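2024-03-11 09:14:02 DEBUG pipeline.ingest accepted 1 chain
2024-03-11 09:14:02 DEBUG pipeline.ingest length=270
2024-03-11 09:14:03 DEBUG pipeline.predict start
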Amino acid sequence: MVAKHFGCAALLAAVFGLMTGPVEAAPCGNTGAGFEAWKRVFANEAQAAGIGSKGIATLMGTSYSVGTIRADRGQKSFKLSLDQFMAKRGGPAIASRGKSMKGANAALLASIEKRYGVPPGPLLAIWGMETAFGSFMGNQPTVSAVATLAYDCRRPEYFTGHLYAALELVDRGVINGQTRGAMHGEVGQTQFLPKSILLYGVDGDGNGVVNLNAKADALASTANFLKGHGWVRGAGYQPGEPNFAAIQGWNAAGVYQQAIAIIGRRIDGQ
């Protein structure tokens, strides 16, 4: 299986160079009133930082997403107890179906584990938790979602990096203005944010294209993400074990991290 990877040294330098561009001149806002003016300022900065005409045109075509802001303000499930979170998100059902998916995708998962050292359990737990194994990947315009969050005053620095990455992906033809995903701009079967696509996206099925809507690419990219966050082949991934830190890199919510570890253990039969 060929692994075509976006993350070469030159690309990483370009990405981080964009992230350190003069982004402070574009003022944030807490409503959509200033979004169009913000876009014009940001477009000038992005163009100066090396974003091409396709990326700039896509940025200028974005719309302020009230739905994205509403979702960003309403992430109440992460404040639940672990038991409540597992029940709300269907943890037992994910584990049960994950065992079936493990058998159905045995060859692919074995190949991924051989290459990246990540066993099936946590990959299937993430896949199931994020999109119910690819059954719903979201319908929110991706670049508009990321642009809205880069403009919003709550976390502009964090999402500015993802917006630059999204525009770079547009220039490269990986995504476009019609690409759709989750409310915060995540795309694909395991829900990658744009910067993570640039850093960790790989071609898992050997067709020469990185497409995170494809199962093999999404699972291989997720394994590559975990490896890039310190995953140690053969080590445990429960809380207190070496690989739990890599799961923490995937999502900042403690209940989510613990749920992935528990569901993964059940899938792996540990």
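2024-03-11 09:14:41 DEBUG pipeline.report The chain has a mean pLDDT of 91.
2024-03-11 09:14:41 DEBUG pipeline.predict end
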